[in-house]
Amino acid sequence: MSQRLPAKIRSSRATMNDVAALAGVSLKTVSRVINGETTVNADLATRVHAAAAELRYRPNFGASALRRNDRRSSTIAVLLQDLSNPLSATMLRAIEEVAAQRGVSVLGGSLDESPEREHELTTSMSRHGVDGVIIAPASHEHHYLALEQQSGIPYVFVDRPPQNLLADQVLSDSRSGSADAVRHLIKHGHRRIGFLGDSTSLFVAHERHQGYVHALTTAGISVDPAIEARDLRTIDQARDAVSALLATTTPPTAFFATQNILTIGAVHAIRDAHAQHRVALIGFEDFLLADLLDPAVSVVAYDVGAMASLAARLLFERIDGQRPAPRHFVIPTTLIARGSGEIAPPKTSGTSTRAKAAGTTARRASTSARPKTGRG
After folding, report:
1. Can you tell me the distance from the alpha carbon of 220 to that of 120, in angstroms, rounded to the nearest whole number?
2. Assigned domain for 376 exists
3. Most confidently modeled range among 35-39, 85-89, 168-172
4. Dihedral sign, CA of 120, 123, 126, 127?
5. Less crowded by CB within 10 Å, the N or C end of the chain?
6. Domain residues for 264?
7. Cross-strand bridge partners of residue 374
8. 209 in a domain, yes or no?
9. Residue 70 is assigned to a structural domain of this protein
10. Tens-place pLDDT, residues 247-276
11. Whose CA is closest to 185, among 257, 247, 286?
12. 335 - beta bridge partners?
């Protein structure tokens, strides 16, 4: 092997030229070894591997993609709302499992319900040469991605549909699932059912509110905006909204929360009022340990992993060159009755709940502020 390279060169990121110089071989030989060609002389291959190990050389797959005939980078992007949210984390994990079977890496990003960040990340991923993108969008206008599609980058939408863009989409049956939850509460005797909703600008939030309204009106129950709390984004916002509603003159006897973070906030508020065995609750989207609470939390669930895996398969079909018309899949929901959604309303007005909730609200107002928690 030739003489060692100067320390100044070895301290920077090694290149194929550095490996060739240290191994005493040509750049073409290094390229053939790095790319796994089996026709290279065994002694030369050993020298190249030894030099690469000493220099801690790592191949630049972005540059490699430019030399490949198909120009693929073997990476895809997954852009969700909040990767720290258990639902988003489950999605990302399921996509990674499908990608790993193909030797593809996954780049993840959180959009934080920001259209500006969505634009930034989709542009960044395109510049990094990803082969495709799975996205739960924050914006309501996606025509700007048409140029990316035309350049060969396929997009698959999950949880929320594309607007002004033809693309594959995989959604949950939000409207039907929400109606099922509210009908379940009505079946158990409730007529004042509080609503906890996400941002009113979101497609999913709108669909779940429509399911709530449909179930009430078809049962002959008037919709009361006074017991609806919308545009909630955090556990604490949901907690405060439920505490305030429980402290009213005629509080809800049940609540329907439209996503997991809001359900957790509702659980806190109802327990703050010591009303967990008197006030019913059903949440949309399951969450960790929901089945271990007392009472266990009834939820409308759907197979998040199946949604994400299907989205990944659709994306790889596009990457492989398949060009079917844009496809639309809906993942069904299931109501899981665990206890909290089966509590009957009190025979009299909720005076005791109201008094306890008011006392709890007063006590909480004197405590220090809690850390804020967001959703995905």
Report:
1. 47
2. no
3. 168-172
4. negative
5. N
6. 174-303+335-365
7. none
8. yes
9. no
10. 999 999 999 999 999 999 999 999 999 999
11. 257
12. 300
